[in-house]
Amino acid sequence: MIDTTTTLGVKDVDTAEVFAAFVTQLSNLQWNPDMTGPQAFGAMKQVLLLRNLVDHHATTLTGELDRLGIADHKTTRLRELLISMGFAPAVAGRYVRISATSDIDLLLAHAADGSISSEHTDAIIRGLGHIDTRSPEPLDTVQRCEYLRKLLSHYFAGFTPAEINLYARQLGNELAAETPGGLPAAEDKNINSYADRITDDGRLEISANLDIIAGEKIRTLMETLSKPKPQPDGSPDPRTPEQICAAAFETIVELAAQGLADTTFSAKPTNCLLWTWSADNPALGGDLQNMGAITEATARMLSCDTTITKIVLDPNGVPLSVGEEKRFFTPGQRKALLVRDRGCIKCGAHAGRCQGHHLVHWSRGGPTNLDNGCLLCTSCHDDVHHHGWDIIMGFDRHPWLIPPASVDPKRQSIPSYHRRTVRLDDAAA
């Protein structure tokens, strides 16, 4: 049994020794295998109390690390310092947010005695912050205490952190509606938010909360660009609605990267990326500046039609050379591709959303000319580089698609989208 009479952090006791003894007792703790249901429930309540107290002390120590400037000494931010120590990113962010709040005595008192979890504490703090943003004038002490009591009452009524956040949004909306000069939540840009994170498997996860005008723009563009695309043989689009919407969002990003206000065709390459490549491992695809490692196949796809500055690094990470942009189609060539292909040769997407693709890749000696190029939208470009689709130049000097065996076991050639009335058996041998 743990000696609960031990007081941590008292000035005349070696804190390290106290913690060592505490950890030892906790590690050696054994639960009675014959305990009853009520006993197990009571033990779990005690573990929850202990866990809440540990979170409170971790938050307090986070504030001490900040006060002492430990992160500054290590030339990093406090959250990153905690992550490097082994805390999960979400936990580290929570500790930093709570430790930065020192003016909510009632809430911190509940956290100090273990009666409220750090997740709920964080939800209440963020909820108060949201209510603050909905008020044209800063909340005074009386108002702040009143809203704190309302949020705390939701916690003690058994509501989850997400439900407390939702309740705080409702309170903030009511405040804005009742206050002269307050804006409805739908129209208030001050509460717009955007967050992204790179996942463990190297993907980008995005969440956003936007006002009604920004939302209307996004939904209009998404509806315009997220129509299903039939396959070259006329079969329905095999993608799920989520995949179609993700491709539409990528198209919006492409158009923004081009600096276009509409879908007119541009002779300008579509992105500006920094690509570092190791001289020691030429088979690897290298690294993008923001997202990290890519495969060789993805590197080939990007280099078809994107302004990539390729920087070769020696084993010490020192640049050896900077690549030159010699592989891109000229404005005149891109206009010629537009006249011939009219749009994506696979799905028919507008030419303004297309990239120039080398049939024989530039890195493999393929020339940058009309007979070795075609237009592909971002989604179809990915199909060619990653999903088994091939392209050949036909007898008519137009590109033809060859589907993978999973789509057509015979892999019969298909004409480009705007020439689907043409068939190989119509032509003389």
UniProtKB/TrEMBL annotation:
Keywords: Endonuclease, Hydrolase, Nuclease. It comes from the Bacteria. GO terms for molecular function: endonuclease activity; nucleic acid binding; zinc ion binding. Transmembrane segments: none annotated. Coiled coil: none annotated. Residues 332-382 form the HNH nuclease domain. This is HNH endonuclease. It comes from Gordonia oryzae. The keyword Nuclease applies. The keyword Membrane does not apply. The lineage of its organism: Bacteria, Bacillati, Actinomycetota, Actinomycetes, Mycobacteriales. Belongs to the Rv1128c/1148c/1588c/1702c/1945/3466 family.
